Endonuclease/exonuclease/phosphatase domain-containing protein
Amino acid sequence: MPPKSEPIAVDTDTLDVVSFNIRYEGVEAHEHRLFSNRLKYIAKFVDTTGPWLVGLQEALPGQVVRLQERLPRFGIIGYQGDGHGALAMSDTRRKHDFHTSILFDREKLDLVSHDHVWLSDTPRVEGSKSWGSKRPRTLTIAAFRLKDAAGVNLVMFNTHLDVHSAQARAEQVRQIGHHVRAWRKTYPKATFLATGDFNSLNGQLPHQLMLESSLVDAWDACGADSSCALVHFPVTFHGWFGGYAGSYVARVPEFILFTLHGSGIEMPTSVPDSIAECVEMIRVILSQLPSITGLWQALPQSLTRMHIDWIFFDGAKPLSVFVGDVRRDGAHSSDHFPVVARFALSSVSSVFGCDTALDSMSLCTVE
């Protein structure tokens, strides 16, 4: 494997989509992990890859603002997870407001409509959470038309599921499926895209539920199509180990840990950084083993693909899918690798009118 992967060349006849957990800004064990030192790598990757759409996860308000300053052609759609949009950026209550923002290239796309919901049993209540989710989790939705087109060509969903509760992840995906079906009724001919950090591996329940919402996993679709270029890399979350996280030595313990995680075991929110932290993680896991249920149902599909960051689609033809920005030199843009899917622009669904019967949902007007 090369030390780092180079972004594929930008093509005017294609539409590229990126899913990227850029890691929140906070105190880090090592200086190179600070967002102030990672920002340039994130911006460079987006700029050189040239996507039309980027689904961001784990971005705090200040991070999104600074990223857009370096990427001025991109517009931003998003909302603070805890419902603090009216508060000043310096307000401490916004410290942990994760965005599930969508960046879109304003030179290629016009925003037609957008929405933001909380993945809870009260999705219109700001900052709400349910099913044991440790923090509010959100879904950002946006409908676009291609420049110089009429109607809607694209609808995009971007999310970030709970990391602690297996039940919460399953229920949150069921909520996403509900919204996918609702928007499909409004825009029956549009191309649908979904990006996110699902904190689950392909083959586990959230992945299965996403497929039941009529969406297709871009990685699986590309792998089954001989005309689609699939650049294999086994992981998307690397926990600051970079390209080494994809080695067979690392994948076996990752497989075991994600299987336990999928069965309901709560894991640390960050990779242990010392022997003491490793010992504590093992102690916490062992204390929960008696409560494990459905272990075999939580098994990932394979050791060759253990992705928690996914791109789904419906109504387009993928040309290539790859895990990007893979490095071993320590200059990591995040503790996740971005995932990139390239689609044939000619395959994007044709334009059509909006169903005004649903206008009360604010789906048919620009907000």
